[in-house]
Each structure stands twice: as C-alpha cells, then as structure tokens.
Write a structure and sequence with these properties.
158 residues, alpha+beta, Polyamine Oxidase, Chain A, domain 2, 2 domains, five-stranded antiparallel beta sheet, 18% strand, globular
C-alpha cells in the first residue's frame, strides 16, 4: 500500500454539481492522478483524489504543502470555491507502519496478472477474485473492481 495516498476535502456545498460538473477528473498536472465526488447521499459535499506521485516524492514535502497543492489542483478543475474546504485530510499509507514497510517505499505500479481463481490447493475452483487487483486491464482502480466482479460472476454462472 505504500505507493498509495489519498486526499479528501469537505465543502459547505457541492459547488461543482451546481456548475454541472460530475466531480470526476483524471490529471497529469498536480499531485492527484484521479479525483472523485465523495459526497454523501444526504448532501455532505466532498471531493477526494488518489495521489499520482511516489511515496519517496511525497516524503519530501510536508502534509500542509501537499494539501495546498491539492487545493490548487481542485481550483484549476472546479473553480475558486475549491480553495476553502471546511476540513481536509491526507491519508498516506507509506506513513502507516502497520500497512507499509521500508521496502514498500520504492515506486511501483499496481500489481497485475492475478489469476481469476486459485490455480492449486484446497481453494482451486472454490475461490474467485473479484477485487480490483484481479482485473487484467484496470488493476487497482474502481474500474478494475467493476471489471473483476463482472468477470467473477460470469465465471460462476453455468
């Protein structure tokens, strides 16, 4: 998990929706590679994004600097209202000693090419992977979870 980190910003309103925007974005400019609307069904407004920069790079700046860069990126995408979240958080799994080891700190990509089912042992033909890591095309992403679940269901149907 060390390659992964997330930023979330909570806002007073869903201003991006008021502009007709979905809150979804992919980017190669700024710390976040992908951004999503994380608003709740009852209207609590939030945007979150996954960092697209390696742990070794994130470690070179403070959390407050990372937050400022994220706000700047949200402003470019969604307007000036994104500059003033009510609260914001960074979760960097590279800093979590129960999740990441020192060896995990090296840059890397999402693991790919997991077999759909166990190839041997007691779980052979009894266990089907439906998490994003089992998607050959979108491993580690939300689209991978949907793809893997669909492939898993198809594998189980007669």
């Amino acid at each position: 998990m060390a390659p992964h980190a997330k930023y979330i910003a909570v806002f007073e309103t869903q201003f991006w929706r008021e502009q007709g925007l979905s809150g979804e974005a992919q980017s190669t400019v700024g710390p976040m590679a992908e951004i999503h609307d994380a608003s709740t069904e009852d209207g609590q407004a939030a945007l979150f994004g996954f960092f697209g920069i390696p742990a070794v790079v994130r470690a070179q700046v403070t959390e407050s600097e990372l937050k400022a860069l994220c706000r700047k990126q949200l402003v470019r995408r969604f307007g000036q209202e994104a500059a003033v979240p009510v609260v914001e958080y960074v979760k960097d799994w590279a800093n979590d000693s129960r999740t990441a080891t020192e060896a995990d700190q090296q840059p890397g990509l999402h693991q790919t090419d997991f077999p759909l089912s166990s190839l041997s042992g007691v779980w052979q033909r009894h266990l089907t992977g439906i998490g994003s890591e089992w998607s050959p095309d979108f491993s580690g992403y939300l689209a991978g979870a949907v793809d893997a679940a669909q492939r898993g269901v198809e594998a189980l149907l007669p």
